[in-house]
């Protein structure tokens, strides 16, 4: 069994050693330009075109992240980047679900307990108790009900919040109100006080966080974008903040990363920024999952995290 590895940021040696420990029967190498030797599996993140093109004999391609929008965009721009008929597999959870729970819960409690506003009052040296939010009128809506969206929803339910999810197709999550499809989107947005975006990035979801959507939320709603920068129309958010339709936003992802120094988000008093760290790939957990999926494929079984190429996730 031959496995090739490519990631522009990860230390290849750590992955070669880790995967060899898990699959001692395999020969694992870091791919280099000009390497056309046989490979059964590829572990990649933003692979160069020549790495995978014409490798129709691959048994599987593993994307080293939960999202596969980047590699699918490469395929759209350079057809043939992904060999036809080769399964594409993404990471499911592998330690990211708990990270996303932690991040989302921290932001929700910050807004729910009005800590962001108290921080401003502290800077102004003002002692002013604010009327607290009540859980009864603090409905949290989550766009996306995949592994991460479901995990966040379940954690927020544990804290007593009213939670609803919207996804392309109906999902059943204990304690969570489910909405699905375009026909139910308006009902989902109505009465939502805090909106969390965890949608996959597909051509259909790009720009979904826009003025039309913001206008359907409760005035003074909060926004958390934890999925992709392409989901957000940035000027629409700035306008919604100026109008008070959005009270505050926490953004972990951006259309251009790193965020340009001149971008207005940096100094906006009601925008909080983190550098795409809400849920990062944890190598040990990721390698465990990939090794288990390779063994499943070798045994003729299906892997977890198989990507539907038409849907884009």
From TrEMBL:
One of its GO terms (cellular component) is cytoplasm. Keywords: Cytoplasm, NAD, NADP, Oxidoreductase, Pyruvate. It is an enzyme of class 1 (oxidoreductase). Pfam families: 2-Hacid_dh_C. One of its GO terms (molecular function) is hydroxypyruvate reductase (NADH) activity. Its main location: cytoplasm. It is found in: Cytoplasm. Its EC number is 1.1.1.79, 1.1.1.81. Residues 106-278 form the D-isomer specific 2-hydroxyacid dehydrogenase NAD-binding domain. The keyword NAD applies. The active site is at 228, 276 (proton donor). InterPro entries: D-isomer_DH_NAD-bd (IPR006140), GhrA_Enterobacterales (IPR023514), NAD(P)-bd_dom_sf (IPR036291). Coiled coil: none annotated. It catalyses: (R)-glycerate + NADP(+) = 3-hydroxypyruvate + NADPH + H(+); (R)-glycerate + NAD(+) = 3-hydroxypyruvate + NADH + H(+); glycolate + NADP(+) = glyoxylate + NADPH + H(+). NCBIfam families: PRK15469.1. Belongs to the D-isomer specific 2-hydroxyacid dehydrogenase family. GhrA subfamily. PANTHER family: 2-HACID_DH_C DOMAIN-CONTAINING PROTEIN (PTHR43333), D-ISOMER SPECIFIC 2-HYDROXYACID DEHYDROGENASE NAD-BINDING DOMAIN-CONTAINING PROTEIN (PTHR43333:SF1). Catalyzes the NADPH-dependent reduction of glyoxylate and hydroxypyruvate into glycolate and glycerate, respectively. This is Glyoxylate/hydroxypyruvate reductase A. The gene is ghrA.
């Amino acid at each position: 069994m031959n496995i090739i590895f490519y990631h522009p940021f990860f230390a290849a040696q750590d992955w070669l050693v880790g995967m060899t420990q898990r699959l001692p029967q395999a020969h694992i190498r870091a791919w280099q330009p000009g390497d056309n030797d046989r490979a059964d599996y590829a572990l990649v993140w933003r692979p160069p075109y020549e790495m995978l093109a014409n490798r129709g004999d691959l048994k599987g391609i593993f994307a080293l992240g939960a999202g596969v929008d980047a590699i699918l965009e490469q395929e759209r721009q350079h057809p043939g980047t992904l060999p036809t008929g080769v399964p594409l597999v993404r990471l499911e959870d592998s330690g990211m679900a708990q990270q996303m729970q932690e991040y989302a819960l921290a932001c929700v409690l910050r807004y729910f307990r009005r800590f962001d506003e108290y921080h401003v009052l502290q800077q102004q040296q003002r002692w002013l108790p604010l009327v607290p939010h009540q859980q009864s009128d603090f409905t949290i809506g989550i766009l996306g009900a995949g592994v991460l969206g479901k995990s966040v929803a379940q954690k927020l339910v544990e804290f007593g919040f009213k939670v609803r999810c919207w996804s392309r197709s109906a999902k059943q999550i204990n304690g969570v109100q489910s909405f699905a499809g375009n026909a139910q989107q308006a009902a989902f947005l109505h009465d939502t006080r805090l909106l969390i975006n965890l949608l996959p990035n597909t051509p259909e979801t790009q720009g979904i966080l826009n003025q039309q959507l913001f206008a359907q939320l409760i005035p003074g709603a909060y926004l958390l974008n934890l999925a992709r920068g392409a989901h957000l129309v940035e000027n629409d958010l700035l306008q919604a903040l100026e109008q008070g339709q959005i009270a505050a936003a926490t953004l972990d992802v951006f259309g251009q990363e790193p965020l340009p120094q001149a971008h207005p988000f940096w100094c906006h008093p009601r925008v909080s920024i983190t550098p795409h760290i809400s849920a990062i790939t944890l190598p040990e957990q990721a390698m465990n999952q990939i090794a288990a999926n390779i063994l499943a494929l070798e045994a003729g079984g299906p892997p977890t995290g198989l990507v539907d190429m038409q849907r884009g996730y």
